[in-house]
């Protein structure tokens, strides 16, 4: 389970870059003319963004921003629903007629393709194209996106994708409509896995190297018309896509026009003004400084907000002294003033206070606060008591890694202040944003603590707790278990849950595992960040999609009046 | 300069007696000038603030790093409560958005950073500039060649870009020291050039030749004859350099390569106020005003001193 790419989503969200970051189902309901109003067909929808897309190749891109965008040009075997709230994270059939038929106790999965499916070239989409697309995930250069296909599907250790190693025998195509996957071990939730980007069909024999990054081959309702990397991207309708085969995508506008490289402050100004084509525009989360300006009734009507489905936390490196002492970690959990951390992030409009590892959008998550304090302002007295018991009443010095980004530094300073009364001196180590995850993921370079975040790949604890806390996953490089927790109890529980065949029971068990882990206090859950975005006055059908870090669902959004 | 054909003793007497009288004269002339007096008063306040920062913040009740969640409105993105950026009896200059840190305390501590860095940089450039400039001007020949080419090289260099590059690639060790070193490394040639030219002129003057003829060694000539005559230029050049260095430090902090947070710095405050300009203009206005007035005062004062010294020399 890949950390970096998931975190790209968070980075991007933090940098207000995403067109596809947001969350929750709480748009401004009730305002009939608000973003929820019905969208008409046609027109050009503008998207203002800071950062460009990481990749257009579905096997490479893997973050909240591109996942949402990919649904416009690509289709997968199954996909997430297109609706606000929990309905958005429900897995529904897309290219396949259903969400898969397991046999052999969940070890073999069979999917049947619908009729009338075509690529933008006019060629029919066959099971061989699906197989080819999935096989690309094993290519060492291409398969840098969603890791699930590689992790779950049986393959020889030497397999390196279709361009280098040829055919993969464990994915069978008995006829042009049927594709069969043989897994390494039973996996109950494989129907959710085939909604990942890597299950996008690619015409057999094509897509080698960087080909798809510059010219994607569309299977969805839109195709690429013009792309200037880092500057702009234009999508037009793909006339080979048939609405009758697609229950998910409404595909309202005729054209999607992205503009990249805009300064976040400029985007806010343009969205607040809403002049000209900006009335047809959507953008990412606003800056903290803009929140106060969005309190007018006119702007409130154009405001959408919800949690983005990620957790921002501070990992405590349990291999370093004195953080190897559970009481010290618990004391830090008690002492951190989450109110000031939230204010540093942008206040209550941009984040909710986090108390558990799993964010509220995860199915089966239990809401509890293991280290309570009045108003979440920290309890230095209780913390001091624990520290004294642990023998560190005189305090100590620790180093906190943080990204060279004003918001992240502000959070680090807030933590520094909160720990000062305990005589814990926090040294803030600022690391360049581009190399941040590489540095903290290298166990030899990692310091005592680091502020980071994690987003689920689908709303299940399976994509949250094992990658962060399975002690057997600690690797010298690219490590995601930042606290380097290797607890036999936690490891055993992870194994136990992974054997469960009932998805609901597993999710519930992860909720309990969350508690078990927090008793060891390897991390300090800080915030569940929120999206807060303004949409243009002419935008209709917009809602925040829980599955795409809370971004506006692009396959449903449109213009209220397409003739403008 | 007009070489006076009068007695050597008179010429020799000028360096030893002129500076003290001109120093006194300078002070009286400045105190008589209202503008210069105002500048001097403002600078005195800033310097006092910098020196007595811990005492002052004890008086005002808020430290520079202390958060005040009650002073900001979390629901509005951390905007200070109250008008004018939260100016009140307890926060004299208001508070910083998003964390409620006291602006007054941060201005006071920011003055420390500005003053320490600019004075240290001035001292370092002063020493480097005078020593290397005099070496080049006095010895000529290959020494002059080497030093002059080095100066040409440094002056032709795109200094700001290079400073940003150096400071962002260096590990975040002792930032203030790094800033001083980097600023000085690019600042000394401007002083050294002037010193070199003046040393060349002075070295040919009769009193220097007379000193040589009476058996003075090189060191004696340099320290007894030439250096005292350069005093005026050095004073003027350095006074005019200080505001430049304050500006450079603020600029580098603004660009994010100056002192590292949470240390207070005026440039950094201005940088973080940029996005808040429309909802909390005071957050920008206050550090901006302090930076502006400090630089203006130093520039006006330096200019005044130059005028007075020029007049003194002509007289």
Automatic annotation (TrEMBL), chain A:
This is ABC transporter substrate-binding protein. Residues 90-474 form the Solute-binding protein family domain. InterPro entries: Peptide/Ni-bd, SBP_5, SBP_5_dom. CDD domains: PBP2_clavulanate_OppA2. Residues 1-25 form the signal peptide. Keywords: Signal. SUPFAM superfamilies: Periplasmic binding protein-like II. It comes from the Bacteria. PROSITE patterns: PROKAR_LIPOPROTEIN (PS51257).
UniProtKB/TrEMBL annotation, chain B:
Its main location: membrane. Residues 111-302 form the ABC transmembrane type-1 domain. It is a multi-pass membrane protein. The chain crosses the membrane at residues 35-56, 113-138, 150-170, 176-195, 234-259, 282-301. The keyword Cell membrane applies. Keywords: Cell membrane, Membrane, Transmembrane, Transmembrane helix, Transport. Gene3D superfamilies: MetI-like. It is found in: Cell membrane. Residues 1-22 are annotated as: Disordered. It comes from the Bacteria. Belongs to the binding-protein-dependent transport system permease family. This is ABC transporter permease.
């Amino acid at each position: 389970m890949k950390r970096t790419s998931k975190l790209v989503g968070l980075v991007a969200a933090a940098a207000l870059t995403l067109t596809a970051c947001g969350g929750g189902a709480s748009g401004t309901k009730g305002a009939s003319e608000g973003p929820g109003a019905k969208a008409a067909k046609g027109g050009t929808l503008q998207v203002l963004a800071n950062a460009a897309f990481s990749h257009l190749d579905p096997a490479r891109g893997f973050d909240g921003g591109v996942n949402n965008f990919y649904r416009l040009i690509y289709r997968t075997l199954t996909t997430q629903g297109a609706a606000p709230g929990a309905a958005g994270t429900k897995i529904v059939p897309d290219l396949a007629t259903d969400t898969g038929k397991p046999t052999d106790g969940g070890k073999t999965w069979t999917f049947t393709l619908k009729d009338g499916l075509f690529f933008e070239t006019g060629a029919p989409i066959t099971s061989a194209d699906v197989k080819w697309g999935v096989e690309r995930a094993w290519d060492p250069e291409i398969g840098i996106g969603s890791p699930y296909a590689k992790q779950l599907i049986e393959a020889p250790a030497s397999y390196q994708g279709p361009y280098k190693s040829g055919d993969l025998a464990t994915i069978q195509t008995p006829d042009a409509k049927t594709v069969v996957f043989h897994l390494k071990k039973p996996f109950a939730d494989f129907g959710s896995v085939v909604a990942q980007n890597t299950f996008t069909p690619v015409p057999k024999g094509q897509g080698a190297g960087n080909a798809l990054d510059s010219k994607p081959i569309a299977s969805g309702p839109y195709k690429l018309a013009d792309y200037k990397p880092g500057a702009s991207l234009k999508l037009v309708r793909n006339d080979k896509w048939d609405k009758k085969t697609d229950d998910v995508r409404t595909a309202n506008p005729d054209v999607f026009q992205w503009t990249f490289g805009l300064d976040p402050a400029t985007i806010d100004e343009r969205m607040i003004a809403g002049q000209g084509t900006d009335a047809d525009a959507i953008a990412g989360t606003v800056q903290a400084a803009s929140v106060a300006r969005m309190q007018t009734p006119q702007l409130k009507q154009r405001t959408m907000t919800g949690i983005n489905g990620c957790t921002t936390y501070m990992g405590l490196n349990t291999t370093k002294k004195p953080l190897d002492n559970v009481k010290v970690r618990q004391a830090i959990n008690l002492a951190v003033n989450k109110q000031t951390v939230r204010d540093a992030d942008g206040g209550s409009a941009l984040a909710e206070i986090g108390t558990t590892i799993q964010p509220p959008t995860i199915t089966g998550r239990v809401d509890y606060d293991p280290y309570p304090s009045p108003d979440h302002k920290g309890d230095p007295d209780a913390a001091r008591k624990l520290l004294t018991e642990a023998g560190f009443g005189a305090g100590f010095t620790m180093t906190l890694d943080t990204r060279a980004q004003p918001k992240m530094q502000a959070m680090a300073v807030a933590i520094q202040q909160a720990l000062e009364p305990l005589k814990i001196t926090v040294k803030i180590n600022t690391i360049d944003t581009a190399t941040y995850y590489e540095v903290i993921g290298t166990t030899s370079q990692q310091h005592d603590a680091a502020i980071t975040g994690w987003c689920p790949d689908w709303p299940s604890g399976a994509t949250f707790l094992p990658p962060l806390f399975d002690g057997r996953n600690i690797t010298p490089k690219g490590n995601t278990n930042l606290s380097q927790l290797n607890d036999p109890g936690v490891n055993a529980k992870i194994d136990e849950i992974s054997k469960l065949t009932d998805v609901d029971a597993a999710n519930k068990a992860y909720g309990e595992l969350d508690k078990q882990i927090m008793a060891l206090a390897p991390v300090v859950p800080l915030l569940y960040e929120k999206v807060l975005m303004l949409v243009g006055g002419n935008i209709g059908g917009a809602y925040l999609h829980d599955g795409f870090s809370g971004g506006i669902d692009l396959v449903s959004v449109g213009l209220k009046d397409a003739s403008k | 300069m007009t070489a006076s054909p009068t007695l050597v003793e008179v010429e020799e007497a000028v360096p030893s007696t002129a500076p003290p009288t001109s120093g006194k004269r300078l002070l009286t002339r400045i105190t008589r000038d209202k503008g210069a007096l105002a500048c001097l008063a403002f600078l005195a306040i800033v310097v006092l603030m910098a020196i007595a920062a811990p005492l002052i913040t004890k008086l005002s009740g808020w430290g520079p790093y202390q958060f005040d969640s009650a002073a900001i409105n979390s629901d509005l993105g951390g905007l200070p409560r109250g008008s004018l950026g939260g100016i009140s009896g307890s926060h004299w200059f208001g508070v910083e958005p998003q964390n409620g840190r006291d602006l007054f305390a941060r201005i006071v501590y920011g003055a420390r950073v500005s003053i320490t860095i600019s004075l240290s940089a001035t001292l370092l450039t002063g020493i480097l500039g005078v020593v290397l400039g005099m070496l080049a001007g006095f010895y000529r020949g290959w020494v002059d060649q080497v030093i002059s080419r080095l100066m040409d090289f440094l002056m032709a260099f795109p200094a700001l870009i290079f400073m940003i590059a150096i400071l962002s690639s260096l590990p975040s060790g002792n930032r203030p020291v790094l800033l001083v070193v980097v600023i000085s490394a690019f600042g000394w040639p401007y002083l050294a050039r002037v010193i070199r030219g003046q040393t060349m002129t002075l070295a040919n003057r009769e009193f220097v030749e007379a000193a040589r003829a009476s058996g003075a060694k090189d060191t004696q000539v340099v320290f007894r004859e030439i250096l005292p005559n350069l005093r005026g230029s050095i004073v003027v050049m350095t006074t005019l350099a200080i505001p430049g260095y304050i500006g450079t430090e603020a600029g580098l902090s603004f660009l994010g390569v100056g002192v590292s947070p949470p240390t207070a710095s005026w440039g950094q405050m201005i940088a973080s106020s940029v996005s808040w300009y429309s909802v909390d203009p005071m957050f920008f206005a206050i550090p901006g005003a302090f930076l502006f007035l400090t630089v203006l005062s130093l520039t006006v004062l330096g200019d005044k001193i130059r005028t007075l010294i020029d007049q003194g020399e002509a007289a």
